[in-house]
Structures are given as structure tokens and as C-alpha cells.
């Protein structure tokens, strides 16, 4: 069954959850179940202990016993983690294991001593790079084949001693396993890099959205609170003069600005909502709340627009309506939304004022903000009086957003 072994994370890359507080663990790499490897290793050792002869405490039996212990230790060392065994030390250990396996085959007279060479050759392919693994496996085959040839003699059936030449073949299985493991690890690291990139992009999107919300809130506060503060300061200054009529007038203007600010705040919240209505319905609702019912005209085939386009066009419309109420009170307002094949156009026109225009000019930041919003969408914005045609003399704001 597949086994998941943790792989140390890339220390040079930022932790994916560093900015978000998410707990992320090390990525696992599928490998063979260690219980299977332990069972196979113990099976080889137990089979060797039961079948390899002679084995004793003196003479040839002592030599066989010592070599058996060395081979068992070399085989058990397969379970040492790679990061704890330097490549040079692994090469030395496996080379000594090859010599010990060949020596055990030569010293013992019977048994399954050859199994140590087979299993060790397989691990050589898994643990070492391809070139040294093939060289060491070739050395294992030559040593084991030579030992069997010398022990059995030339008159013995060649199949017996050529069996020793096959001890290095399992190195190919080890190389395949190592290649697959590295491919899986590379895929997991690539997935980790992609995830980190996606998180970074998400953080950038969050910061961009925060900046947009801050700009929207600033537009409302900068226009409304400054005017309210000015009227209240004027009222405070007029108190000392004793002119109560002018004080009341200043307070009334401050109250009007508060009402207008609340209306603008409602529009802003409506424009910021993710579940906002399609643009025509949102514009109609905005116009109705500002007292301009049936002022919207939609031409062309209506289509869905990205949320970013809808939100910015609503803020442009809000700013234009605010400017119309401030500089042309009482003047009728017309809004045209045109869906063309290659663009979407929003026009807001207001006729000259019919009521009293309040003193004080605007800061000009409203038009700058509208141009910035249109520029973010790759479009163009024009604002100014209409010079000719049936709407001559009206003030018009036109935003054209490419498809």
C-alpha cells in the first residue's frame, strides 16, 4: 500500500500561510509501505540465519557468522533516512556491503547468502545516482560471479556460477523507483510553488480591493465631511454676530449635507456589495433614490459586465449625480447606458440649475477620481458642456469602457 513520507519544505520559499495564519504541513511523497520493506529485510535475515551453513563460534563457522552479521547490518541500514546519511558515506557503506555479500557467498557452503547481494544491489539503485549505482552493481555482479566460479571450479555447470552475475540486476529496479520518487517530488514541489503563487496573487487581489474600498470611502468622506465642517464653522462664527437667520441658514445647509452624505454612503455600500444587481437595475435604483425616476435609457443588447466594471461605473454615476445636485440644483438629469459590440458607454447629463446654487466651487477631485476609475478599466472619460445638438448647454459626463 502507498506510504506518505514527509519531505522537508523549501526553506528559501516563504511559508504559504505566513501572511494568512494558516497552518500548513510538509508535503508528503508517496513511497512503498515501510512495513513491507521491514518484512522483506527481516525475511532475508531470518532465511539466512536458518539456511546459511556452516555458522559457529570457531573456524569457518565464525567467519560465516561475522560476515552474516555484517550483511544483516548493511541490509538493515537501508532504513536510515537519506538526509542523515551523506552521499559519500552511503557510497562507502554500500561498497563495503557489496564486498561483504560476495565474501559471504564465497565462505558459506550452503544457504541463501546470495539474497543479501540481490537486495543490496536493489538499494544501490535507489540510494545512489545512476552512474555510481551502475558501476557498483557491476562490481557486485563481477565479485559474486567470480567468487562462485572460484568456489565451484570450471568443471561445474556454468549456470551455477553465472547466477552470481545476476546479483546486480536489481539495481535497475532501484533506479526506476528512485526516478519515480523524484518525479513525484518534483510534481509536489511544482504544486507547492503554484499554490504559493496563487496565494500571493490572492493577497495582491485583497490589497487591491482594500485600496478600491478605501478610495470609495474617501470619496464620500472627503466631499461630505469637509462641507459639513465648513458650514458648522461658519455657524460658530456667525453666533458672535447675533445674526440668527444666517446661523439657521448655515445649520440648514449642514443638515442638507448630512442627508446627502447618508445618501452617498448608501450608494457606496450598494456599489461595493458583491451581490449587486446588474448595471441597468443598479443605475435605476440609484436614480430613484436621488429623485430622478425614469431618467435611465438603455440602448443595445444588454449583457453581463464584470463586477469591477459595474462597481466603477456606479461610482462614476454617483459622483456625476452628486456634482449635478451641487452645481445644478433643480436641473433635470438624463442617464444613457449604451451596449455596443465593442464597448459600453455611460452618459450622465444634467440641465442648468433651476434653484439657488450654493457658494463655493468644487475641489476638482471628483473628475480626477472618475478619470482614474475609467483608466483602470482601459477606457476614456470626457466631461464638459455640450456644445451643439438638442442637449446644447447641458453638462455631460461620458465614460466609454471597451469590451
How does this structure look, described?
- The longest helix has 70 residues, at 170-239.
- Helix 10 runs antiparallel to helix 11 (365-376).
- The chain is 60% helix and 11% strand.
- It starts with a strand and ends with a strand.
- It is built from eleven helices and seven strands.
- Residues 1-25 have low confidence and may be disordered.
- The protein is rod-shaped, with a radius of gyration of 42 Å.
- A hairpin with a 3-residue loop joins strand 4 and strand 5.
- By secondary structure, the chain is of the alpha+beta class.
What are the main properties of this structure?
single chain; about 400 residues; alpha+beta; five-stranded mixed beta sheet; two-stranded antiparallel sheet; about 60% helix; disordered N terminus
Can you tell me the residue ranges where pLDDT is under 50 for at least 5 consecutive residues?
1-25
Radius of gyration: 42 Å
Tally of helical runs = 11
Distance between the termini: 54 Å
Mean pLDDT: 83
What is the string of helix and strand elements? Answer: EEHHHHHHHHHEHEEHEE
Helix content: 55-70%
Number of strands: 7
**Gross morphology:** rod-shaped
Estimate the strand proportion: 5-15%
The major beta sheet can be summarized as: 5 strands, mixed
Strand order of the largest sheet: 3-4-5-7-6
Which secondary-structure class do the elements indicate?
alpha+beta
Element layout with pairings:
Elements: E1 2-6, E2 28-32, H1 34-51, H2 59-76, H3 87-107, H4 114-127, H5 130-152, H6 158-162, H7 170-239, H8 244-272, H9 279-289, E3 296-300, H10 307-327, E4 333-339, E5 343-350, H11 365-376, E6 380-385, E7 395-402
Parallel strand pairs: 3-4
Antiparallel strand pairs: 1-2, 4-5, 5-7, 6-7
Amino acid at each position: 500500500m502507498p506510504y506518505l513520507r514527509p519531505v522537508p519544505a523549501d526553506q528559501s520559499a516563504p511559508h504559504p500561510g505566513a501572511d494568512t495564519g494558516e497552518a500548513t504541513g510538509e508535503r508528503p511523497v508517496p513511497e512503498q509501505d515501510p512495513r513491507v520493506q521491514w518484512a522483506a529485510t527481516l525475511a532475508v535475515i531470518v532465511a539466512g540465519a536458518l539456511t546459511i551453513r556452516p555458522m559457529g563460534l570457531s573456524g569457518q563457522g565464525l567467519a560465516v557468522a561475522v560476515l552474516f552479521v555484517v550483511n544483516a547490518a548493511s541490509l538493515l541500514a537501508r532504513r536510515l533516512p537519506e538526509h542523515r546519511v551523506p552521499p559519500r558515506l552511503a557510497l562507502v557503506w554500500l561498497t563495503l556491503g557489496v564486498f561483504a555479500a560476495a565474501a559471504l557467498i564465497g565462505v558459506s557452503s550452503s544457504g541463501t547468502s546470495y539474497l543479501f547481494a540481490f537486495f543490496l544491489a536493489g538499494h544501490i539503485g535507489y540510494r545512489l545516482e545512476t552512474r555510481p549505482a551502475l558501476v557498483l552493481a557491476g562490481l557486485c555482479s563481477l565479485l559474486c560471479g567470480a567468487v562462485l566460479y572460484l568456489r565451484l571450479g570450471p568443471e561445474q555447470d556454468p549456470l551455477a556460477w553465472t547466477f552470481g552475475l545476476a546479483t546486480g540486476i536489481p539495481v535497475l529496479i532501484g533506479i526506476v523507483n528512485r526516478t519515480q520518487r523524484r518525479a513525484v517530488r518534483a510534481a509536489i514541489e511544482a504544486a507547492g510553488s503554484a499554490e504559493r503563487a496563487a496565494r500571493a496573487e490572492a493577497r495582491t487581489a485583497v490589497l487591491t480591493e482594500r485600496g478600491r474600498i478605501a478610495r470609495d470611502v474617501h470619496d464620500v468622506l472627503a466631499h461630505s465631511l469637509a462641507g459639513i465642517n465648513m458650514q458648522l464653522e461658519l455657524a460658530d462664527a456667525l453666533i458672535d454676530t447675533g445674526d440668527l437667520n444666517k446661523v439657521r441658514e448655515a445649520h440648514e445647509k449642514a443638515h442638507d449635507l448630512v442627508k446627502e452624505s447618508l445618501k452617498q454612503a448608501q450608494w457606496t455600500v450598494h456599489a461595493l456589495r458583491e451581490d449587486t444587481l446588474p448595471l441597468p437595475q443598479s443605475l435605476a435604483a440609484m436614480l430613484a433614490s436621488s429623485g430622478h425616476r425614469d431618467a435611465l435609457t438603455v440602448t443595445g443588447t444588454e449583457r453581463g459586465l464584470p463586477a469591477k466594471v459595474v462597481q466603477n461605473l456606479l461610482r462614476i454615476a454617483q459622483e456625476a449625480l452628486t456634482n449635478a445636485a451641487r452645481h445644478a440644483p433643480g436641473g433635470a438629469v438624463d442617464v444613457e447606458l449604451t451596449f455596443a459590440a465593442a464597448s459600453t458607454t455611460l452618459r450622465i447629463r444634467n440641465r442648468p440649475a433651476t434653484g439657488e446654487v450654493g457658494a463655493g466651487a468644487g475641489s476638482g477631485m471628483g473628475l480626477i477620481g472618475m478619470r482614474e476609475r475609467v483608466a483602470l478599466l482601459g477606457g476614456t472619460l470626457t466631461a464638459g458642456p455640450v456644445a451643439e445638438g438638442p442637449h446644447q448647454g447641458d453638462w455631460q459626463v461620458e465614460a466609454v469602457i471597451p469590451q
